[in-house]
Amino acid sequence: MTSNPPPAAEELPGEVLITGRKVQSRINELGRRITDDYLGGSPLLICVLNGAAPFVTDLVQAIRLPTEIDYVMAESYGQGTQSSGTVRLTRDVSVPLLGRDIVLVEDIVDTGLTVHFLLQRFARLEPKSLRVCSLLSKRKTRLYPVVVDYIGFEIPDRFVFGYGLDWSGNYRDLREIRVLE
Ligand code: PRP
Questions:
Q1: Whose CA is nearest to atom 6 of ligand 1?
Q2: Active site residue 110
């Protein structure tokens, strides 16, 4: 079996916005904050697929508490330029949220539509607490007034990819976040 070598850094499109080292260092800080905030507890991290998969995997290792991870998948429509987007849940949570400390884990909050929808839905399942942790946040593009409790990096309104975020299905495997020039 033959396999193609990974592209050299100079062959990748765009430029590095956040190095892999900075991503990991910030995740360690977020992990420490979450550990302090939930001391003695056992939070349930709910990862929004696909983009947040690498993030939640590293984040859970940075949290020094017993944790659980569950996964949801959401498709959104009409976001970006419209304020009335809709979201369809294509994979729902698989454990009860009643009485649990929930941390919703996203790779990026852009318009806020996805998180807004998921928070409303999860709130109806009566968790003990409900917070949001996102690696990236584009505050300037927000159309929904969501509170993101733990933010890795505030970034400008530019197209980013890498570390879970795709560009037409590619580059999710990069350790760094890249941006188109
Ligand atoms: C991205 C991202 C968030 C959402 C953020 O998901 O992972 O879930 O968009 O945008 P919003 O704040 O405007 O709702 P995407 O639909 O690209 O799917 P993916 O995670 O599978 O790449």
A1: 51
A2: yes
